[in-house]
Design brief:
single chain, 13 helices, flat
Length: about 350
């Protein structure tokens, strides 16, 4: 038998292998905005065709169409797994818009209605000699009252809250620390009207002191204290234990370690927490109505006589029930929002200023 030689196949005779890609098809970047615009158009068309007069209903329809449309497109192009991720992302965006729309609407309404009478005269005059049905008057006496009452409350609550947080983090062991933590948690949820009733019964009814800005400041301090304690406590816990141990290893006493190492390290977060607590109590009206009692004139002494504040001024003007008082109430609300916004900007500035450098 003769040997049979089988030549190996040549490269040219082999069929080329198909190219495979590890990346799945993806929707283009303009797909979500285009889907949102199309959903809004279809939602408006459905609302008009069905005779729905509320724009909120149009928005709900558009949101549902957007979520379902993005899921369908992603499932068809990118696969079911990526479609679930698109579904979660769409729900997050819809919830974000649901939260932002009322805030934007509130801000726009306050600015558009409050800017009618907000000028230099409104900020530099009080309501002395001005009838509620007449235009004019101002909010100067309420600004003075708010600054004094919030300042006194901060002077009371900030040191007490700071020292309480230092005790809980650095010294708190055993039953006493648990009791203090429990009461701080309880005070966090106490309604503002309860704090006002407590100060009213103790300071005014039992001790027979009169209505004053200081009485309102004590109620505000009760509301502010647990916020300061909690925020300061969390900031102190973030300080690395290695810093404490290094200081103690050098023979530095514990109180000096807290004063020179722990507090300076956490001072940015502590200042931010205190500033946010101030912003939280600046808009409280229930304790002020019970304890400060309101005033139409400027009272620079928070320890003697009735005094006004921005929340009480807004309540007072709105209760008057006429167009001029409504304009003043909206303008005072705009001033209060600006005050809180400035405090928040100050808190962010302090946090960035004191943040550790990379």
């Amino acid at each position: 038998m003769s040997d049979v030689t089988i030549d190996p196949p040549r490269v040219a005779d082999q069929a080329p292998l198909p190219r495979t890609s590890l990346r799945r098809p993806r929707l283009p970047r303009w797909a979500p905005p285009a889907a949102a615009a199309a959903s809004a158009a279809v939602g408006i068309a459905i609302g008009l065709g069905a005779g729905l007069s509320s724009r909120i209903q149009w928005g709900v329809i558009a949101a549902l169409l957007f979520v379902l449309g993005m899921y369908g497109l992603a499932a068809r192009v990118e696969g079911r797994r990526q479609a679930k991720d698109r579904l979660a992302t769409s729900l997050v965006w819809v919830c974000f818009l649901i939260a932002v729309v009322p805030l934007v609407s509130l801000g726009w309404e306050t600015i558009s209605r409050g800017s009618k009478v907000l000028d230099g005269t409104f900020l530099s005059h009080s309501m002395a000699g001005v009838l509620t049905i007449q235009p004019g008057g101002g909010v100067y006496h309420a600004i003075i009252g708010t600054l004094e009452q919030v300042g006194i409350a901060t002077a009371i609550a900030a040191p007490v809250g700071l020292l309480t947080a230092v005790y809980l983090v650095e010294y708190g062991r055993g039953r006493l620390a648990k009791v203090v933590t429990f009461f701080v948690d309880v005070m966090t949820g106490v309604p503002s009207i309860v704090a006002g009733l407590f100060v009213l019964s103790f300071w005014i009814l039992m001790l027979d002191f009169g209505y004053s800005g200081f009485a309102g400041s004590m109620a505000l301090a009760i509301l502010m204290m647990p916020v300061v304690v909690r925020s300061t406590e969390e900031m102190l816990k973030l300080v690395p234990n290695e810093l404490r141990e290094a200081s103690l290893a050098l023979g530095v006493p514990k109180w000096r370690t807290i004063l020179k190492v722990v507090l300076p390290t956490a001072i940015g977060g502590i200042a931010t927490g205190v500033t946010l607590a101030i912003a939280r109590i600046a808009g409280e009206s229930a304790p002020i109505v019970l304890l400060v009692f309101g005033s139409q004139v400027i009272n620079n002494n928070p320890f003697d006589g009735a005094q006004s504040s921005l929340p009480y001024y807004i309540y007072e003007q709105w209760a008057a029930g006429n167009e001029a008082s409504y304009d003043r109430a909206w303008a005072a609300a705009l001033v209060l929002i600006a005050f809180v916004m400035i405090l928040n900007l100050v808190a962010r500035g302090i946090a960035r200023w004191k943040a550790p450098k990379r």
